[in-house]
Design a protein that fits this description.
It contains five helices and no strands. By secondary structure, it is mainly α. The radius of gyration is 21 Å and the shape is elongated. The two termini are 40 Å apart.
C-alpha cells in the first residue's frame, strides 16, 4: 500500500516538474521571439514563470530528497574509515536535518495559512499567492517524511556497523 502511494506521489511530482519546466521554457521562448522578431513585448509573463518555477524547484527538491541526490557536502568518509563513526555521523546529520526540516515545515504551513487568510494576490493576474507557496510546504513535508525514512535506514546501518566491529 505504501509503495503504491509512494509511486503515485513520485509520478505526480514528475508530471508537475515536466509540465512546469515545459511551461517556463515555452514562456521564455515566446517572450524572446515576440521581443526580437515581432518587436512586441510580452509583458507580465514573468508572474506565471515565477509561479511555475516555484512548483518546479520545490517538487525537484522533494524528488532529490527522496532519491538522496540533493547537494551534499559530506567529507567524513575522506578522513575516517571506521564504519561505526561514519554511521554515527550520518545518523547525527540526519537527525539535525530532521529537526531543521520540521521547523521549516511548520513555518511553511503557518505561512500558507496566513497568506490564505490574508487573501494575498499577485500583482498582475491577481492569482492567489498560495499557489506559489503551497509547493514549499509540500516539499518540506515530504523532506520530513524522507528524513524519517533515512533515520530508520541510518539506525540499521549503525547496528550493522557495531555488529561488524564486535565480530572483528
Amino acid at each position: 500500500m505504501l509503495k503504491k502511494i509512494d509511486d503515485l506521489l513520485e509520478t505526480c511530482e514528475n508530471w508537475i516538474m515536466v509540465g512546469t519546466g515545459i511551461t517556463v521554457c515555452l514562456l521564455i521562448f515566446i517572450s524572446a521571439m515576440m521581443r526580437y522578431i515581432i518587436k512586441v513585448d510580452f509583458y507580465r509573463y514573468e508572474e506565471i514563470v515565477l509561479f511555475c518555477a516555484f512548483w518546479l524547484y520545490f517538487m525537484g527538491s522533494s524528488v532529490a530528497a527522496k532519491k538522496g541526490t540533493h547537494i551534499n557536502a559530506n567529507m567524513m568518509s575522506m578522513f575516517c574509515h571506521n564504519r561505526t563513526v561514519l554511521a554515527s555521523s550520518e545518523l547525527l546529520k540526519t537527525l539535525v536535518s530532521l529537526v531543521v526540516c520540521i521547523i521549516a515545515t511548520v513555518w511553511c504551513w503557518n505561512y500558507v495559512l496566513w497568506s490564505f487568510q490574508m487573501g494575498a494576490k499577485s500583482n498582475v493576474f491577481k492569482l492567489p499567492n498560495v499557489i506559489a507557496q503551497i509547493p514549499m510546504f509540500i516539499s518540506f513535508f515530504l523532506w520530513t517524511l524522507y528524513l524519517i525514512r533515512d533515520i530508520l535506514k541510518n539506525l540499521k546501518e549503525l547496528k550493522a556497523a557495531v555488529r561488524g566491529e564486535e565480530g572483528a
